[in-house]
Amino acid sequence: MNIKLFIHQLNRSGIPYVHWKSNSNIDRAIAGVDDLDILTLISEKKRISEFFKKNRIFRGYSYKDGWQNNIYHYYAIDEKRKELIHIHIHFGLTLGFDFDKRYTLPFNRFYLDDPTIYKGLNLPSVEKEYIVLIIRILLKNSLETYLLSPHLFIKKIISNKIIDKGHYHEFNDLKTKVNYIKLKNTFKKLDILNLNLFLKMESSI
Asked: Who's near 156: CB < 8 A, 6+ residues apart?
């Protein structure tokens, strides 16, 4: 199994999916440098399990599985390169602090609709990914995060960097690519968040 073959087989399976986050670095994920983050529907759980079993992709277990919903780790072996392929399967847009992801956005199906295709891989539109990125950044850097892990807050205050470099890179990259007319139209299809509130959230970063 290699990543190119994995993408090909996943597309053939008919399972709806997108590579849902960090697509500013998607070439690194496709090259196997970064993990793959595949989002699908909870209703596809059985088909995903059968697909992985058929393609000799094996589940890995983490102590976070006990409290972290909708996120599963799978591994395959790229025998030619003698490397592991690490695949995260997400059955929901579950966000938050790394060790306490507890907020699940209620528009999973919407996020999967009308994907764009890059090197064979389904991606969400830039506008959808940007909306979710802003929410991700704010939740990851919320007060709750620092109450749970005050050492992180102290470390970030000392370094004068509240938002980590990777997320800030994604923010700047997507912000330059977003079409604000398309963004406005995207919000017309969402009933949990309005554009004015989102723009205030964006301006806080």
From this structure: 162
Q: What is the pTM of this model?
A: 0.89
* pLDDT per residue of the chain (205 residues) written in tens, 0 to 9: 899 999 999 999 999 999 999 999 999 999 999 999 999 999 999 999 999 999 999 999 987 777 778 999 999 999 888 899 999 999 999 998 777 788 899 999 999 999 999 999 999 999 999 999 999 998 887 655 545 555 555 455 445 556 778 889 999 999 999 999 999 999 999 888 889 999 998 998 8
Enumerate helices (H) and strands (E) in the chain, giving the number of each.
10, 9
Q: Quick one: angle between helices 45-54 and 3-13, nearest 10?
A: 140
Assess contact for 177 and 129: CB atoms under 8 A: no
Tokens 């090197």 correspond to what residue? 119
- Structure tokens, 41: 């529907």
Neighbouring residues of 188: CB distance < 8 A, sequence distance ≥ 6: none
Distance from C-alpha of 57 to C-alpha of 53, rounded to nearest angstrom: 6
d(CA 138, CA 200): 12
Give the bridge partners for 121, in sequence order.
118
DSSP SS3 for 66: helix
**123 vs 12: CA distance, rounded Å:** 16
Asked if 38 and 86 count as a contact pair (C-beta separation under 8 A), the reply is no
